[in-house]
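Write out the bound-state structure for uridine-5'-diphosphate-xylopyranose.
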Amino acid sequence: MNISIIGSGYVGLVTGACFAELGNRVICADNDIKKIAHLKKGIIPIYEPGLEELVAHNVKKKRLRFSSSIKDAVKNSEIIFIAVGTPALENGEADLTGIENVARNIAMNMTSYRLIVEKSTVPVETGEWLKRTISTYIKRKIEFDVASNPEFLREGQAINDFMHPDRIVIGVESKRAKEVLTNLYKPLNAPIVTTNIKSAELIKHACNAFLANKISFINAISRICDKVGADVKEVADGMGLDKRIGASFLNAGVGYGGSCFPKDVDAFIKISEKLGYDFALLKAVKNINEEQKDFILKKLKDILWIVKDKTIGVLGLSFKPNTDDIRNAPSLDLINALQTEGAKIKVYDPQAMEKAKGILRQVRFCQDPYEVCRGSDCLLIVTEWDEFKELDFAKVKKLLKRPFIVDGRNIYEPQKLKKQGFTYIGIGRKGYE
Ligand code: UDX
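---
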């Protein structure tokens, strides 16, 4: 099929490259001329394992190309995915300016039937607005369909998530749209959930909100564990084996970050408010996530007492491992709070340092974890990169000014470190600290 993806950001690029890999002819378009020029040279603006190779392979096979012209994209494809950003406005609502702009441009350049698919995460009822906008700006009477096909791609494993999805959700209003999308996804052999457009839009927000809910729930449990001397990992294991609950997304820690959960939770609270429903549960999810960072800082201060002029070594900047993404990363808030109290910061992250250099001030960026340890009064783990799990602790102990570890992701065994002479503080692990 001939497909175009408008918006060559994270979701757009992964989606475009994967559809091309499935044998379709794909145009990835973007109005950022510099970005398109880079992509044409094979330079990928994000770090995602396997993406560079996948793009190169499909460009070579002539199944994937890049364009800075929406006209070109609309003219040469029957299916148009909208994957532009929907950043948060000051009040938490999603900014849909980009979506509206693309809809107008599609309408003005359409010459025959097109299926326009929302891929970006959007508030419920955006599909209605898309239809209205396209009808308003279309030049003559041309048939078109709008559909919703939310993505469930996790950064760091997005290609695998695309190729092996748990399910595919398509929200459609016509037989034709249903057939086109079902055929497009047929090669993936995955269950397809067909709904109306509004349900599909809601499924996306409901999923992210529910997952954020799970994380905040286990983080709340970690607080109780700390109070009574229980171990949150054991509690999570005991809960997770119940099939109705499931073991995933029950890792307590510094809280969720990234480009989706914080933004989508805020947007969902706002949408509900606009619709006349006070989503109090989701407000609590957000608050627990914010409080978790204060909780960790308090633990650190309980041992260090005075933070001013102490050196804190931070391991991990990205909001989770295997990505260089630092959007809404808990590391940024933690470092800011520590700096406000006068602490000196040394940090290391395997991928995210370049991006962080543009944001963090007066931080010493190190070559490896051991350089971070040298002379630090405390080692704070913020992201659970594999390489932090296998440190040489004898070396770490020698390098630290005092053998003190705050494990914000519960990656170490408290008793093991205790035996090696460390003061170890985890999240909800009082039972073993
Ligand atoms: C998420 C959704 O998973 C994906 O389906 C959606 O399309 C986009 O948003 P992503 O933001 O890439 O994906 O990351 P994810 O792996 O879901 O993790 C989100 C955050 O939750 C991270 O900060 C992670 O550290 C945190 N997390 C996750 C926990 O704190 N505990 C857990 O048990 C799981």
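---
Residues 197-228 form the longest helix (32 residues).
The pocket of uridine-5'-diphosphate-xylopyranose is lined by residues 151-155, 208, 211, 215, 249-251, 253, 256-258, 260-261, 319-320 (CB under 6 Å).
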